[in-house]
Amino acid sequence: MSEANENQDHSTEANEPKEACSFKSALFVAATAIASMSQRPCLVLARSQIQRTDMELIYQALDDVHGPAIDVLLSSCGGSVEGAYMIARSLRRRFGHVRIYVPHLAKSAATLLALAADEIVMGPLGELGPMDVQSTLALSAPVSSDASALLPFCGLKTLDDAVRDQLRETTEALARATGVRPADVVGHSIDLIAKVYSPIYARIDPVRIGEGSRGLRMGFEYGMRILCRMRGMSREQATRIVGKLVHGYPSHDFVIDGEEAIGIGLPVRRANEQELPLMRHLGRLLLGMDPDCDVVELMWPGEPDATGFDEDGGPGADEAAAADDEAAAADEAAAAAEPAPGNGGPQEPTCGEPAQACKQPPESSAAGKGHAPEEAAA
Questions:
Q1: If we measure between CA atoms, which residue out of 270, 253, 252 comes closest to residue 261?
Q2: pTM of the model
Q3: What is the Cα Rg of the chain in Å?
Q4: 261, 114 Cβ separation under 8 angstroms
Q5: Closest CA to 13 of 304, 343, 339, 351
Q6: In the beta sheet, which residues pair with residue 227?
Q7: Distances (CA, A) of 179 to 166, 170, 172, 185, 188
Q8: C-alpha distances in angstroms, 357 versus 79, 173, 363?
Q9: Neighbours of 57 (CB within 10 A)
Q10: Angle in degrees, 0-180, between the axes of helices 206-225 and 81-94, rounded to the nearest 10
Q11: pLDDT at 117 over 90
Q12: DSSP sequence for 192-233
């Protein structure tokens, strides 16, 4: 990265609201604790909406890091299935084992990304979601533009069922009224039903129906490629899992918790005794996440470790007190060293810069470096 770009990034971080800095700092501390527990790098991927262009952020965060394993702290409401697939592909090409932590939401496209994991660890507030791609509605009715692509197909099925039921009832009623066989009056029934339902069917746009079908197919095909090609799953098992995620739920917002995910066949486990306080802390932290406060950063093992979190999920009392003392001492030192106005002096540190956010591993964690770049692995 050029010096000009670095200065621009630091300037942007310096202008971030204090709340955003606090949120990022807490997220970095938690991710470092995860990395310390497993002694492997931890990628923080907290994005309100995953975008195809996020690959640039992933490349910047991972740099040329490859290795036997990585943890991913994932939080997202969804986004681009293409972007999620590309991130999943990058992780699988770089690392032999991928473990994904879901302390809060990993919905829609984020669930697609989670399919790439060998292990998914869910906290008490963790949830995945259906992969029925959101699309414009395939009817001309004025509804939300981010409706599920399944909605028009559900509407068509409901309409078709209603037409069949109405045709049967009308035919039976005419047969009873006229005293003739149902087969002799079914033509009249069809004429009556057509007059009622033709205006409704006329409102259906076949092009948009095709768009919805195409969107659902995209989610299905990407899911199959992740499970079969990246994780080596049989096509039969992958079809059952992806089919359930794409077509098996009545709402795009349906909650897929840990028990539901295990029932589908995903490699989900509950947070263990060591991870649970941290996952509780992260779940509450992400509940209040600013939608505009997105984070993509690679963290390495360091301090604090998981023992720095108490049973309520926050930093322990001793650790919190020590942190307060250190912060107070740092403030006093900074005030004493502050130069007179106009005399220059050291630049004020920018917020949002994690203490452990080095792009290269520490000397003790240098294993995994020196591998061929990801493009060569393709």
A1: 270
A2: 0.67
A3: 27
A4: no
A5: 351
A6: none
A7: 20, 14, 10, 10, 14
A8: 26, 75, 15
A9: 17
A10: 10
A11: yes
A12: HHHHHHHHHHHTB-HHHHHHHHHHHHHHHHHHHHIIIIIT--
Beta bridge partners of 106: 76, 128
Say if CB 109 and CB 84 are below 8 A apart.
yes
Phi, psi of 121 (to 5 degrees): -105, 120
Q: Taking the CA of residue 292 as centre, how many other CA atoms within 13 Å lie in the half-sphere pointing to its CB?
A: 5
Rounded to whole angstroms, how far apart are CA atoms 295 and 202?
47
Mean per-residue pLDDT, 36-58 = 94
Residue 15 is predicted with a pLDDT of 54
Q: Rounded CA gap, 46 and 24, in Å?
A: 10
Phi, psi of 148 (to 5 degrees): -65, 145
Q: Tell whether omega for the bond before 250 is within 30 degrees of 0, i.e. cis.
A: no
Phi, psi of 191 (to 5 degrees): -60, -40
Length of the chain as a residue count: 378
Q: Taking the CB of residue 157, how many other CB atoms lie within 10 A of it?
A: 10
Q: Which tokens hold the place of 94?
A: 């770089």
Mean of pLDDT values over 75-89: 95
